[in-house]
Amino acid sequence: MTQKPSDQVATEANDLIITRTLRAPRSALWRAWTDPELLKQWWCPAPWTTEVHAFDLRAGGAFHTFMQGPDGGTSDNPGSFLEVVPHSRIVFTSLLLADWRPHKPWLPFTAMITMEDTGAGGSRYTARVMHPDDATREQHEKLGFFDGWNTCITQLDDFALTLR
Asked: Is the pTM above the cut of 0.85?
């Protein structure tokens, strides 16, 4: 039996986690998340905009967003979905492209999004973003992970409340 050296094992210490209680019902959050025409309306912090280049909502399906800022800055983010559990969980990664093809992204991570009912008509939304090592987690945090992802979650909640 071969054992991995302990420094090669990713741990929960490399995760960045946001858990929030949202006003929107889980069904509306799911719809906003899983329809690419709706996703691009809340996906990145305004005034940045999102183009959805690929969205194949299945394990191994492509998930590719391209973000552009008002100053001309861009962020190209190809990846793939790893798991889709209707109305409760979406897992995606930047480390693989469609059909499990390996990829070397500018920022390697895997994100697990979970949605649960709160019992009061709202939802509990958790974003767990897992990184391969401490340096990558720190890089993501310094890039503004908490401000950026929280802004997007607020935009998601506000947008999902408008869906009928």
From this structure: yes
